[in-house]
Write a structure and sequence with these properties.
The protein is α/β, with parallel strands linked by helices. It has a domain at 87-105 and 223-424: Rossmann fold, CATH 3.40.50. The chain is built from 20 helices and 15 strands. It has helices at 15-21, 40-45, 51-60, 68-80, 110-127, 141-150, 169-176, 192-204, 206-211, 222-242, 258-269, 287-294, 318-325, 330-343, 352-358, 366-380, 386-398, 417-424, 432-437, 451-461, and strands at 3-5, 30-32, 90-93, 96-100, 132-137, 156-163, 183-189, 214-215, 248-253, 275-282, 296-298, 345-347, 359-363, 405-409, 445-448. A hairpin with a 2-residue loop joins strand 3 (90-93) and strand 4 (96-100). The protein binds pyridoxal-5'-phosphate. Pyridoxal-5'-phosphate is lined by residues 108-110, 141, 219, 253-259, 309-310, 387, 410-411. Residues 108-110, 141, 219, 253-259, 309-310, 387, 410-411 line the site of pyridoxal-5'-phosphate.
Length: 465
Amino acid sequence: MQYISTRGGIDPVSFTEAVLMGLATDGGLILPRAIPRIGSETYNEWKDLSYKDLAFEVMSRFVDDIPEAELRNLIYRSYESFDSDEVIPLVHHGSLHIMELFHGPTLAFKDVALQFLGNVFEYLLEKNDSIMNILGATSGDTGSAAIYGVRGKERINIFILHPHERVSKVQEKQMTTVMDSNVFNIAIHGTFDDGQAIVKSIFNDLDFKEQQSLGAINSINWARVLAQVVYYVHACLHISNHENDKATDFSVPTGNFGDIFAGYIAKRMLPEGTIRKLLLATNGNDILTRMVQDGDYSLSEVTPTSSPSMDIQSASNFERYLYYLLDEEPDRTKQAMTQFAETGSINLTDFQDQIQRDFIAEKATEEDVTATIADFHKEHGYIMDPHTAVGMHCALKHQRKGIPVCCLATAHPGKFAETVEAAIGQTIDLPESIQNLMDKESRCELMDADRNLIMDFVKKHAKHG
Ligand SMILES: *Cc1c(COP(=O)(O)O)cnc(C)c1O
């Protein structure tokens, strides 16, 4: 399998080159040259596979430069850290199915991809006898999942910036209580955007990047998308056992368009009619909802909500979908993205029919989120987190009679206990890993949001090959 850039400016690369490249060197995003198709016969043979074996079958369609036994081993190790034997359990309420993606070490769906990416990095560095210093900024969930993905790995150091006192207590503790010597937490006086801007500017210093062997772990890495494709296939197989092979809708709480883009790949990969529609759910930060409903992809201000991991305007994975929308023509993609960088908007009204063939979109207000958590708890005794509720709101609104819908549950409710408890009017049981956090020792540098200070710190503590 060869990989190309959405902007057409790189020679085709292998899977492992794509993983190490992260963002394509021409500024575009990396995609497989062609999406593999799975016939019904193969699909039916997958019905009894465990999650790990299914992950191998799906991923090996996209990876041909890691020997099979090694790929299988990487996958097995990645999902051993999950607290459920099924890895990703499904809960059924009639024709509504909830896919619980939060059984990994940091209790949010990002573990599914970052446990895998951490192991792939380790494997590749070992093979090339090299090292990597990962640098990233987080608003909460990504940082902890990334730290848990690489903690204790010999060839990797990780530096994660988070905004001081602007992440939740659980998120802060999850990051700062990891005592492995390769983990460096930096709390900055400033916002997430300040952290993000510093990281971007450091990556733009190509000499520094090379000298310090900097690596990125953000949501544009192809390996992250790939790991997420697997659970859509897994859900389809399980739901079709329950629902006599009917086409399924998926409802996906969306921020950076990463998770739902994995669903789009799965839809194109599986036999026609396996996935019907992708329901794109946003909170009040609704650029993507406007894109689907009105063809209006234009930036506005980010407003804070109770689903903070989706408080995003510019969706970093959107360019991947745009490439398909524009008939896989890199020049047009590049032109559209240049226009977006200059004007903050792309007009997609001419593409409405095409977009709505695959997507339905809905936004949830803060009141919708609270009401959804409360009502669903009352009716089914099931407690969901605010991100999941954004998706559930959309699913309930657009559910069609006779069509199964699968809601992606992206975080454990205990991770956002305050909002959840306020909604249902009672306290909830916290998972053990959260209960223990508060008493644990933690370690973190507090620094000004100053690029040079951060660079000095990284340089001082970086691993060198
Ligand atoms: C990151 C995140 C999302 C959004 O996922 P995207 O891939 O950015 O669309 C949703 N829910 C939770 C809990 C998250 O951490």
